[in-house]
């Protein structure tokens, strides 16, 4: 087997392994979802803070992204996302209907949180990633989740 074929085979195997781990994390955190009690700043807490919103709300749409990020990264580089999503202001906003205006407004608020955190902690990879994910990109993801009806029902 030549080097290219070996590299391709190893890459495929690694991707399958990562996908399996991500699927297991996604399933685990989905099963853990129950009554919400704010606990900490972790990404797991971000999932719990968004899991109770009705279908068609900003929070329900955001929950899909929170679960997906948790599936791939666990609580690594969470950049105080649990603190943000469990805040009373975010909870009020996420209870609103998932309209283009409400989605854009929440995306601005979320981006402002991560941008401020990145200013305070420029070497925090989670804050950097959150600040790099622009409001327009967040809205595009939210709209796609709604379009594909991927939120919890």
Can you give me a brief rundown of this structure?
With 153 residues, the protein is mainly alpha-helical.
Properties at a glance:
71% helix, 0% strand, mainly alpha, 8 helices, 153 residues
Number of domains: 1
Structural class: mainly alpha
The overall average pLDDT, rounded, is 78
Helix % is over 70%
Global shape: globular
The proportion of strand residues reads: under 5%
Largest sheet: none
- The H/E string reads HHHHHHHH
Beta-strand segment tally = 0
- First and last CA, distance: 49 Å
Oligomer: single chain
Radius of gyration: 17 Å
Poorly predicted runs are none
SS element count, helices: 8
Fold blueprint:
Elements: H1 3-32, H2 43-50, H3 58-73, H4 81-86, H5 88-94, H6 100-120, H7 125-132, H8 135-147
Helix pairs in contact: 1-3, 2-3, 3-8, 6-7, 6-8
Describe this structure in words.
- By secondary structure, the chain is mainly α.
- It has one domain.
- The chain is built from 8 helices and no strands.
- Helix 2 (43-50) packs antiparallel against helix 3 (58-73), helix 6 (100-120) packs antiparallel against helix 7 and helix 6 (100-120) packs across helix 8.
- The longest helix has 30 residues, at 3-32.
- The chain is globular.
- It starts with a helix and ends in a 6-residue tail after the last helix.
- The model has no long low-confidence stretch (mean pLDDT 78).
